[in-house]
Amino acid sequence: MLTSSVVLSIIVTMIILGAGIMGLCIFRTSKILTLFEIEADRSSWQIMYRLMISFLCGYSLLAYLISARLFEWIPLLTGMVFFLGALFVWFSVNVYYRTLNRFLQIQDKYRAAKENAETILFQLQKVQQSQLQSIHRETMLALGQMVAGVAHEINNPVSFIEGNLGYVSSYTKNLFDLLETYASVYPNPDSKIINAIASSDLEFIKSDFPSILNSMEAGTTRINEIVQSLSSFSRLNETDFKKADIHEGIDSTLTILSHRLNSCGRRTKHIAVIKEYGEISKIYCNPRILNQVFFHVINNAIDALNKKAATSEIEEEETPTIRICTSYSQKNEINIQIIDNGSGITKEVCKNIFRPFFTTKPVGQGTGLGLSISHQIIVEQHGGTIKCTSTENQGAEFLITLPINESLKFSQS
Predict the structure, then answer these.
(1) Which residues are within 8 A (CB) of 87 and not within 5 positions of it... i.e. 6 or more apart?
(2) Closest-CA residue to 306 (of 345, 351, 267)
(3) Which of 283, 398, 262, 276 is nearest to 340 (CA)?
(4) CB-hemisphere CA count at 13 Å for 246?
(5) Contacts of 332 (CB under 8 A, 6+ apart)
(6) 326: which strand partners?
(7) What is the Cα–Cα distance from 247 to 236, expressed in whole angstroms?
């Protein structure tokens, strides 16, 4: 049966196909050999390349023997082919093993290098964050010292003026009474005195001078209020954690930012501040660093209102507004809501807004640390929470919750 022409034709065809496949393998291996730069790696593939050529010769010789019906040589040739096949398989497994071993080594080195790089990057970011936070704290401390110094320097002359206004008022009243007494005793004074009284407009002075004193008194009162707000904002002379009035801290922050509230973008509109304070008693906190939180959040709200006004997205009848609400919650906490109708932010930005160094402001206008440090102050140092919800082009709301349990002790960083 094996000697029939049909069977022999099938066998020869299969051998030719095998030879063709082997030829393709030889061609691909010749391409692979050009990729190696190390001779040790190339040598194994060169041996496999030569074995493939031997296989191809064996295929050709086997096809010739079958075609010539020289069957007595086929067992010998078959044995040689099997031997070469075993050598080829051994070299193939060896090359695969070496390649796989090298790949696993490279993979381990890559993993170790990646972990090392991630560790170094994390440490670098941590150091950078620590340095920038230290700079920020020093900046805020310097600002507090400067504010306290300015408040002190203003307070001294203002106190001097305020303390003497009462004497000025008393002395002036005495002088006016003296003039009236003189006029009643001497109803017909000399012409020089009459001319002097007419030129000085004495009656107008008598009616206007009390108004001047009242306006000066109102001015010194207002300056005292500003000085008090500046001192309240800095709080350099107070202990870290104490019972403090949250509303006082918010009001002092608004005073510090009053120059930014007087204009909004390219428009002449003032930013309206609506305060809806609940009846909240003093809570145990660090008022000095809480003022920093209020400063950053309110300052961001002003930036959002200015951004909306600058892009002409605020309607003519719409008033730029910041609304500040405080209230008790049912969880023995107080809630502080700071709401604006500014440009707002997207949900994606809202998720990252408390991440260190994250900012949507142009380069040079923001460090991305203000809200990150605010989050650290509220969460880590006061055991509270701070959240942001926003709708783009409609505004944003920051919700700050602070516990009122003074038995809690929080660490400072």
Answers:
(1) 51
(2) 267
(3) 398
(4) 28
(5) 403, 404, 405
(6) 336
(7) 18
- String of DSSP letters for 76-137: HHHHHHHHHHHHHHHHHHHHHHHHHHHHHHHHHHHHHHHHHHHHHHHHHHHHHHHHHHHHHH
Strand partners, 275: 324
- CB-count burial class (<10 Å; 0-12, 13-18, 19+) for 246: buried
Distance CA 268, CA 212 (A): 30
- The reply to whether the predicted model has a pTM over 0.85 is no
Amino acid at 385: T
pLDDT tens figures, 42-88: 777 777 777 777 777 777 777 777 777 666 666 766 677 667 667 77
Query: Could you identify the residue written with the tokens 């160094």?
Result: 357
Q: Is 341 helix (H, G, I), strand (E, B) or coil?
A: coil
CA nearest to 249, candidates 144, 367, 376: 144
395 strand-pairing partners:
391
Compute the distance between CA of residue 282 and CA of residue 184 in angstroms, rounded to an integer. 60
One-letter amino acid identity for 236? L
Band (413; pLDDT cuts 50, 70, 90): very low
Quick count: other Cβ atoms within 10 Å of Cβ 334? 21
Q: What is the rounded CA–CA span in Å between residue 404 and residue 413?
A: 21
State phi, psi for 343 to the nearest 5 degrees: -75, -25
CA dihedral sign, ordered 86, 89, 91, 97: negative
Q: What span, in angstroms and rounded, lies between the C-alpha atoms of 265 and 92? A: 74
